[in-house]
Task: inverse folding
């Protein structure tokens, strides 16, 4: 894969994070890998997520990129858990998700190399 500019690397990292959300939610739908189609999509998104993360590391620091990748995954998965599965949307839980968002924004705009 070709080298990326910093801006492109952040975009690739964002897409990698979205893929992480997809595979995390896919785990629920695959029902322990007992349903073929959701299992195939889940595994494909796992691979794509890690490949895109690796590609973004050509231009981003590993600590920053990994923290942002997992943060996007955590936020997206928590939000979809609330929306799709009726998980708790208690104020304290939402506040904690907000702290993850603040951490990602801090890494992107304040602590990036």
Result:
């Amino acid at each position: 894969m070709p080298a990326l500019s910093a801006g492109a690397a952040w975009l690739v990292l964002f897409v990698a994070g979205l893929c992480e959300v997809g595979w995390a939610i896919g785990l629920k739908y695959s029902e322990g890998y007992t349903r073929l189609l959701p299992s195939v999509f889940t595994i494909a998104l796992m691979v794509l997520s890690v490949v895109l993360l690796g590609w973004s590391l050509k231009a981003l620091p590993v600590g920053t990129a990994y923290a942002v990748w997992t943060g996007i995954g955590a936020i997206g998965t928590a939000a979809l858990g609330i929306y799709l599965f009726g998980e708790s949307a208690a104020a304290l839980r939402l506040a904690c998700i907000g702290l993850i968002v603040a951490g990602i924004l801090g890494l992107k705009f304040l602590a990036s190399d």
The chain has four helices and no strands. The radius of gyration is 15 Å. The chain has one domain: 6-109. Residues 6-109 form one domain.
